[in-house]
Amino acid sequence: MAKLSKKLSKTDIRKRLSVPTRFLSSLPSFNGAHAVDFQAVDEGGKVWTFKCSIRRLRHPKPVLSKGWLAFVASKGLQAGDKIKFYKETNDVAKAHAYKVRAKREIKIFGCVLGYAPITAPVTPTKFLQRNYDV
Fold first, then answer.
1. Going residue by residue through the chain (134 aa), what tens digit of pLDDT does each one get?
2. pTM for the complete prediction?
3. According to CATH, what is the number of the domain 3-117?
4. CA neighbor of 79 nearest in space, from 48, 51, 47, 112
5. Are the C-beta atoms of residues 89 and 66 closer than 8 Å to each other?
6. Three-state SS for 79?
């Protein structure tokens, strides 16, 4: 079951991922700290380490920072794309496994038709232009 599903904003892809407070209950315990690291596996099997931090005072306002921008760059995420984090329990090891999935917004003539999974790292555009210009 998805614990977090979000359509990405410009701030989400340029600075940090803002997450709802209810997502905190599915993360490892903060143990009184203001941040916790956790690992999530993408659809290709790559393990990503993310840091979720909260404010020390008042409303927690959780955000993912460490590791997030590298994930965004690797997947070529853009505003409008969707992200999902899942938590699954391994009954044998009694350990929690997090998964992260990204989906690209599919538009035709400005209308959103749906979302397609992003399964492979994006090749940098400059590399393609430099090597395939005629």
1. 458 899 999 999 999 999 988 888 888 888 888 889 999 999 888 999 999 998 877 777 899 989 999 999 999 999 999 999 988 766 554 455 789 999 998 888 888 888 888 876 655 554 444 444 44
2. 0.78
3. 2.40.330.10
4. 112
5. no
6. coil
